[in-house]
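Hi all, posting the design record for the shared folder.

TITLE: backbone redesign
STEP: 1 of 1
STRUCTURE INPUT:
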């Protein structure tokens, strides 16, 4: 792979759409904690109306909203998505991998490792000029690395900014509010590798 041959990720036409499963999982996580809509709203910063619409399947949550909800539950986003669709297989076929698209930005997040694994790998496409922000709580209980496959990724971790290009790998530090930003005019493709630790 070189800079003139960008890594291309072609979504499978029959990749799983997790929208309904995510809606059900959010409601299950809230119910398991005996939280009202108001309590989850207070803990996440997401409005009661939006949470209600998501749980009823009337609205698809954005990446930012999912990050806030997963943080409120004390779960990494990848765990929340994995729990939404537990397949229990050791082989993860591309045609059956969970592929989620942010309805607001077109950002896509594919879980490429078998769901529920302690070690997880995610494949991301970040469209041009798109910025995705997550609270520190979304990074709790995990060790995470970001590997850029092609394009440019500006990763802001607290007060520190990292500019990552093809082949660069960043080990995240302690949980902080973070932002993923693609400053280029072409998509950025990157992998996220994470290992969960005690607390999840």
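Okay, here is what came back for every position:
SEQUENCE:
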């Amino acid at each position: 792979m070189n800079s003139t041959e960008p890594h291309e990720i072609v979504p499978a036409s029959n990749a799983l759409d997790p929208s309904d499963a995510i809606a059900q999982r959010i409601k299950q996580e809230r119910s398991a904690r005996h939280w009202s809509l108001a309590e989850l709203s207070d803990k996440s910063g997401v409005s009661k109306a939006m949470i209600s619409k998501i749980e009823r399947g009337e609205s698809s949550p954005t990446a930012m909203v999912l990050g806030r909800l997963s943080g409120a539950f004390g779960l990494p986003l990848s765990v929340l998505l994995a729990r939404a669709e537990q397949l229990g297989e050791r082989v993860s076929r591309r045609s059956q991998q969970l592929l989620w698209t942010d309805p607001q930005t077109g950002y896509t997040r594919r879980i490429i490792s078998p769901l529920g694994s302690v070690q997880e790998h995610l494949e991301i496409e970040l469209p041009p000029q798109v910025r995705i922000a997550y609270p520190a709580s979304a990074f709790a209980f995990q060790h995470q690395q970001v590997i850029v496959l092609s394009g440019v990724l500006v990763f802001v971790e607290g007060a520190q900014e990292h500019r990552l290009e093809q082949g660069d790998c960043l080990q995240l530090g302690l949980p902080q509010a973070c932002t993923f930003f693609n400053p280029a005019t072409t998509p950025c493709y990157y992998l996220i590798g994470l290992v969960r630790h005690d607390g999840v």
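COMMENT: DSSP finds five helices and ten strands in the chain.
Let me know if anyone wants the other runs.
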